[in-house]
Specification:
alpha/beta, Rossmann fold, 35% helix
Length: 224
């Protein structure tokens, strides 16, 4: 198990080339996510990254590529690295990253939901990418925090400078209760937003929408 406190020690050195955006993605693997839903979530991310529209934006500026990292989270001590920081400078880079997502097997972890701990793990990851023009943390989840520090108790001083936290919630309720919770307590930073999937079967499409919204904004700004 790779705990949040030691997670970053395992990260490899990365190139000194300009980085357009660092994107850390935290996937919820708490007890409310069964084995089938877990695969839909992990494979949904892989599918979204490979969509034609997302690839078009990913490789828009080869001289200033995107870097991504993926981890799964549940309880306060259960933050497992799936994909260390990876520079997506070519289709081969993307294929290697996606291949790691497809073969990854779920780690044994607590069934609880520690969103605050997931935020802190993401912040620590993004602290390792200070040279990127934009730094973004994505937290996916299907429930409220029920253990560890509450997200609303994570002080704004803990948020690294310039980092934006977005959310992707799996929320089929007619009142959008979980989406409202994320908007109130989880997302933060400039332009932060919440994307919603009605169920795990819709996760891939929701992830594609979210990635396009995040990546197109920085690509358009850089071109301008």
């Amino acid at each position: 198990m790779i705990r949040a406190a030691t997670l970053l020690i395992c990260l490899p050195a990365f190139a000194d080339a300009a980085c357009r955006q660092a994107l850390a993605l935290g996937l919820d693997v708490s007890g409310s996510v069964d084995t089938h839903e877990y695969r839909l979530q992990l494979e949904g991310l892989a599918t979204a990254l490979q969509s034609d529209r997302v690839q078009e934006v990913l490789f828009l500026q080869a001289a200033a590529p995107i870097r991504i990292s993926v981890y799964e989270w549940s309880g306060p001590q259960d933050q497992h690295l799936i994909l260390p920081w990876t520079t997506l400078q070519s289709v081969k880079d993307l294929q290697r990253a996606v291949g790691q997502l497809w073969v990854h097997q779920r780690n044994v972890a607590a069934p609880t939901t520690a969103i605050g701990s997931a935020l802190l793990t993401g912040f620590a990851l993004l602290d390792q990418q200070p040279d990127c023009w934009k730094r973004t943390l994505d937290i996916s989840g299907d429930g409220r925090a029920n253990t560890g520090p509450r997200p609303q108790d994570i002080s704004s001083t803990r948020l690294p400078d310039g980092v934006t936290v977005n959310g992707l919630v799996i929320d089929g309720s007619p009142t959008a209760e979980l989406a409202n919770y994320y908007e109130s307590y989880v997302i933060r930073g400039s332009g932060a937003f919440v994307e919603t999937a009605q169920n795990f079967e819709e996760y891939a499409k929701a992830m594609e929408r979210k990635l396009l919204r995040e990546l197109e904004s920085i690509a358009t700004g850089a071109l301008e």
